[in-house]
Amino acid sequence: MIQGEKVYLRGLEREDFKLLHEMMNDEEVMRWARSRPDNTVSMEELEKEYEAELRGESARRRTFVIVHKKTQKAVGWATIRWWRPFQTTADIGVAIADRTIRGKGIGTEVNMLLTRLVFEQYNMHKVELWTRGDNPAAIRSAEKNGYKIEGRSKESVYFDGKFYDGIHMGLLRDEYEKLKSRARP
Question: Which of 99, 115, 161, 169 is the most exposed place for a label (fewest CB within 10 A)?
Answer without folding.
Answer: 161
